[in-house]
Each structure stands twice: as structure tokens, then as C-alpha cells.
Amino acid sequence: MTTAPSPFPAPDSAPTDRGAVPAATSGRREFPFERRHFDFIAHMLYQLAGIALAPHKIEMVYSRLARRLRDLRLGDFDSYCALLESEEGANEVGFLVNALTTNLTSFFRESHHFDFLAKTAVPEMRARHAGESSHPRLRIWSAGCSSGQEPYTIAMVLASSFGPELRRWDAKILATDIDTHMVDTARRGVYPADLANSIPAPLRDRFTRRQREAGEPMVAMEEELKRLITFKPLNLLERWPMKGPFDAIFCRNVLIYFDRVGRTQVIGNFARLLEPGGCLFLGHSESLYGVSDRFRQTGPTIYRRL
Asked: Per the annotation, where are the binding residues for S-adenosyl-L-methionine?
């Protein structure tokens, strides 16, 4: 079959391998989905969010966006791509980013990070700031907070480590994500009850409460935690409004979606905003090797700003 010239050509800089995805796959799907559609969507996501869609993600892209075509009552991906390019497509662009952003997270995920935070980083923060004022300042950033389990875990660690003393501290956790729907979910702080099983029982008993919604068991985060956290949408490749400095930054399983230029830019900005000696926590498959010389590694995917 001969494929017609694409009305949505991907520029040469589009982060895809042109030989890795079939040119047309309309015979197997509800909507015709050709390589030109994937290239256009991949390039738009890269331009908007710095996320490089690998060619093996074609099935994921199709399945997540096919549902959107049904909701919009569009007959094909040509119409959807045209919508994204139109003036009326501004809101749809936001949906595209939300739909294609992976949001896998859990409470106390990669627990060695939180052991280090409780046993090493928090005592250092207390020693560093304790004599600064009657309300010492402490700032931690969860960059790529997804549905919120990470910042709530950080808040549990702070609250349990400081105890009643935390009331005299100006302690805040900033939690950001590019996916606005995830930010709304995180801000609400209510999850299916089984997701709380990864929270150690003493902390679960203290910082969560059971409730039911539509007959389903749920767990809600206590206000004590919510008061510590500010949730905001943020694209890490756009201008950052915050000035820092931060005592610690968690950015786990986010850098893997950026190309080398994007990773270098983000890590450089983290170094600028972190206190000297401040900690940067990355995901289990991420590394600063060849990306930055402004950090030294102090543990598995734990780095200190020089």
C-alpha cells in the first residue's frame, strides 16, 4: 500500500527512529494510525514537554489517544492532529500531555531514599538551620510528583522525624508535575485503600484515615500532611518561578523521558537551586554520569550538590 504524503511532517529534530514503526497499521485498529501521525504527536510532545517518545511506544500512544478520539467523536487521527494544530486546540494540547505522561508511583517507593532522608539528611538540615531564626526555614521539592504519594511520603518522614518541634519550623514541601490531572489528584490526597499497604503501619495509623467513596474503601491523607505541601503544575523545561534554595530535591523516574539536552538543562537548574551539600534523589535507572560535574554520589541514586 502506498502512503500519501503526510500533512503533518515531523521535523528532522523529532526524537524518533523513522524505520522502527510500520508506515500504516489501519487494518488492525479502530482508527487508521500511520507513522506520520506518530511522528507528529511525538514531535509535539517533545516540543511541549521535552519528553522523547521512543518508537516502541506506538501502541501506548494509540491506545491512550484512541479513547480521546471516541470522546471527541472524531473519525480519524488526521482530524485529531489538525485539532492539535488549530487555535481551538489549546486545551487539547494539555490533554495530550496528560494522556501520554506515565504516572507510576507509590508510597515509600525506593525506600532507601526515605531511610537516608530520615536518618542522615533531616538531622543535617536541623543542624544547618536550627540557629538561623526562631522559625528556621526548610524546603524540599518533589519534582514530578505524579498523583502525590511521593510528597506525602516526604511529609510523613518530616513529621515523624521532627515530632512536635516541626511546629516552630518554616517547613514546606513543593510538589509539581506537568500533568494537571495528577496535580489535582495529589492535592485531594485520597487513594484506594490498598495503595496504603506500602506505608509502615505506625505511620499509616497516624497520618491516614479510612473512608468510603461510592462503596469503595479509600484512604485519605491527614491535614497535618497537607499543610506541609503546596501542589503546582510545572513543566521542568519551561521557566521555573521558584528561587530556592532547597535542602533536598526528589526527581525520580522523570529524567528518563528527556533527551541529553533536556537532562543537562534540568540538572543544571537543580544545582542552581540546591543548597551546597543538599541532596538530589533520582530514580533507580537514572544517573548523573556524563550529565553534570556539580554533584557527588553518596548512595544508590543519591547525590549531593558540591
From this structure: 103, 105, 109, 150, 177, 235-236, 252-253
Against a cut of 0.90, is the pTM above it? no
- What DSSP element (H or E) covers 125? helix 122-129
CATH topology of domain 111-305: Rossmann fold (3.40.50)
Q: Which of 39, 177, 179, 247 is catalytic?
A: 177
Task: Write out pLDDT tens, residues 236-277.
Answer: 999 999 999 999 999 998 888 888 899 999 999 999 999 999
Dihedral sign (CA 260, 262, 265, 270): negative
User: In the chain, which residues fall in CATH 1.10.155.10?
Assistant: 26-100
Architecture of domain 26-100: Orthogonal Bundle (1.10)
Rounded CA separation 38/23 (Å): 10
Distance CA 152, CA 145 (A): 10
Residues annotated within a binding site: 103, 105, 109, 150, 177, 235-236, 252-253
Q: Alpha carbon 57 to chain centroid distance?
A: 18
What is the tens place of the pLDDT at every residue in 48-96?
777 788 888 899 999 989 999 999 999 999 999 999 999 887 778 878 8
The rounded distance, in Å, linking the Cα atoms of 95 and 115 is: 36
Q: Residue type for 302, please?
A: I
* 174: Cβ contacts below 8 Å, ≥ 6 apart: 139, 140, 141, 142, 229, 230, 232, 242, 246
3-state secondary structure of 241: coil
- The C-alpha cell of 66 is what? 484512541
Verify whether residue 64 is a known catalytic residue. Answer: yes
Kindly name the residue from 64, 187, 188, 294 that is annotated as catalytic: 64
